[in-house]
Amino acid sequence: MAMTRDELLKLYDGLRVTDVCDGMDSVGLQDVGCVDSNIKALWKDFENFDHRIYGFAKTVRYMPTNRPRLQIKECKDEHNEDVGYWYNTYASDRDWVDTIQKGDIIVFDGSGITNTGFIGSENGYSWVNAGASGMITNAGCRDTDEIAKQRLPVYSAYISRGRRPSRLEFVDCNVTVEIGGVMVRPGDLIVADGDGVIVVPIEVAEEVGKFAKSVQDGDKIARRKHYEASGAEPDFTVM
After folding, report:
1. Euclidean distance between the first and final Cα of the chain, in Å?
2. HEC secondary structure over 158-205
3. Which listed residue, of 128, 150, 227, 233, carries a Cα 20 to 30 Å from 99's Cα?
4. Whole-Å CA distances, 75 to 70, 79, 84, 121
5. How far is residue 170's CA from residue 149's CA, in Å, rounded to a whole number?
6. Which of 66-70, 138-142, 206-210 has the lowest mean pLDDT?
7. pTM of the prediction?
8. Max Cα separation, the chain?
9. Is 6 left (phi over 0), alpha (psi -120 to 50) or beta?
């Protein structure tokens, strides 16, 4: 009987990208699911590894717009109204935000959109508060100082500055996307840490996770012996 969503989350809790990569090898998926290394953690926590995330893909697609751009208006209120209209009409997240479940990882496919921050300090916080474990994009994020300060787990290809209006439009959600040369389907299992991002097809997630867990257990035993030999105090990574 296949594992439930909660059981899979428990299985992958604490697994590293390298463990999962070895697990993919075990089922004959060598070099499959390894997202391009330019998509990496915006910030890292070397004490508790709070930048590490694992969970199920919730996919969202945006594209560069071909509509006339907004003009800067002399009246601030009028310009803000136009900006709000663009957000609500062309670039809203309302089509998917209400369906976020605990343990989801929001995966934004924004290939070709270069100067827009898909993930910012405000919307990123709202998605985490809704239950998301973190966010991944093949495009950019902005407000990066605040994102790091707020400890929102974000993996992106680069840092951007622009906002959505006049730059992009929402296309679809819960569809197959491409991130860093890897196919990501809604519900696939994702692990991300300091070594990057790996995507596990949901059909093999249980088998891959069990093998990865055995790899990690063996690694902890071996590394703990090195700690003891050197006189170092064992930490949580070998416990």
Report:
1. 30
2. EECCECCCCCEEEEEECCCEEECCEEECCCCEEEEECCEEEEECHHHH
3. 150
4. 13, 6, 14, 27
5. 28
6. 66-70
7. 0.93
8. 70
9. alpha
